[in-house]
Amino acid sequence: MRNLRGILVAAVFALLTLILVWVADQFDILMGMAYPFMSKTALELVGAWTSQFTFNLWQVAIAVYGVVVLATLGLAILFRWNLLRWLGAVLVPVSVAIFLNTGLWGLNYYTKPIGEGMKLEVSEYTVSDLKEAAIYYRNQAVALADLVPRDENGNLLVGDLAQLNAVTAQSYDDLVWKYSIFAGSRGPIKELGWSETLSRFGIDGVTVGLTGEAAINLNQSSATLPFKMCREMAKLLAFAREDEANFAAYLACEHSRDIAFRYSGYLNAFQYCSNALYDTSKSAWREVWEGVSDTIYHDVNDINAYVAATEGETKVQIQAVYDEMLKALNEEKSIDAYGEVTDLLVAWYIDQYRPVEEVEENAFDPTDYDQVFPSVPPEETTEGTEATEEG
Fold first, then answer.
1. What is the pLDDT of residues 97-148, one digit of tens each?
2. Taken in order 222, 228, 232, 233, is the CA torsion positive or negative?
3. Beta-strand (E) ranges in 123-248?
4. What is each CA distance from 103 to 7, 43, 62, 110, 329, in whole angstroms?
5. For residue 58, with 0-12 CB atoms within 10 Å meaning exposed, 13-18 middle and 19 or more buried, which class applies?
6. Which of 90, 240, 279, 326 is deepest in the core (most CB within 10 A)?
7. Who's near 10: CB < 8 A, 6+ residues apart?
8. Apex 36 CA angle, 165 and 13, nearest 5
């Protein structure tokens, strides 16, 4: 029994994690009322402590854990230790970490949608609606594409990580004046370690609730960096669902004072809508792309080149594992939820920017006799009136 102690402790924490998830799923209204505030507060407090380190504590912990596991496994084999006891010792820290991360951050998958918090009506839309939204975001990107600072190769100049952090924080500070749900941690977002390796896995950003840290892969296209910075900060603000984090990132970019951030937001919004349009109407997709400038093509090709360089079997396997993790955390559409941001982007366009058809009304003119004293046709005599007159 003593040899199974570690395994039993790990099983208890795994069970506690499942109970947390079950409670969140069953009491979603209560979760929406209280949990986001609790999670944001915890992330802000933990993040304030971990921000004193320039590196990601969770990456150091993983590296140390990996070394310890391999070293103790070798010793267990060499000295013939009981492998069940060794396995228990290995599983306990993992199960505890998963339990704490779920409690601090993971249950945000069960809170109310971002649309409710913003009073934004998200409903079904037509291909025409999607095309309109794509054209709007395209036009905004085209208008800014040649105004943003660029290097000799035509790529965006977005500054170093400290500058990106400052603008990202300022963008959310401006946004929170309109929508209080964006209050909370302002990072800072750190550089993602092992970036070359993680790029091959298709990982461009990671947020860990347990340590209150968000990290960004700086190897990706500079055209997407401002948007992805805002996305990782959205995760620190308790927007766990991928579509909502991406939508929050767009809103932060749109409200940013920095032209490169606004451009990156519009470019990514256009790409999301364009990709959705490609899946629904090839002819509408072609029409939308006819209005794209050469500068936009340059940035899109740069983004696609980075994505193509990361393609491979390893990425497929990693994304398959991540897909199952998202499903386990109530992300019903799993990894496809990255594309579901289109629903929010179209709803935002319709709510904020679609021209409203105004019904022309005749203004009241006090000097017009016919308006002041409108002629009223004589009322027909009713039976009741006739009866009264006769009486």
1. 999 999 999 999 999 899 998 999 998 899 999 999 999 999 999 999 999 9
2. positive
3. 189-191, 205-208, 213-216
4. 21, 11, 20, 12, 12
5. buried
6. 240
7. 88, 91, 92, 94, 95
8. 105
